[in-house]
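[Automated response] Your request has been received and processed.

Submitted sequence:
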Amino acid sequence: MEEFSRRKSRRRRAAFCAHAFVDKVHAQGSRGRVLEEDLSHAQINKSLGAPSDYTTEVDAFLRSVW
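Generated structure:
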């Protein structure tokens, strides 16, 4: 199982939870990573897919698991 977690850099709790989730994914022998972006959830929803380094990183991860 492959997992991908994103989080908003602005929120410490979100950071902790995202990293804890990926740590558990790794402990189960799967791959995962956290991409730290200083964006709100709404901003991510609006911008993901537009040309950017963030979109490129997400696309690369998704291609690696399919």
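Summary generated for your ticket: Residues 12 and 18 are 10 Å apart (CA to CA). The mean pLDDT is 84.
If you did not submit this request, please reply to this message.
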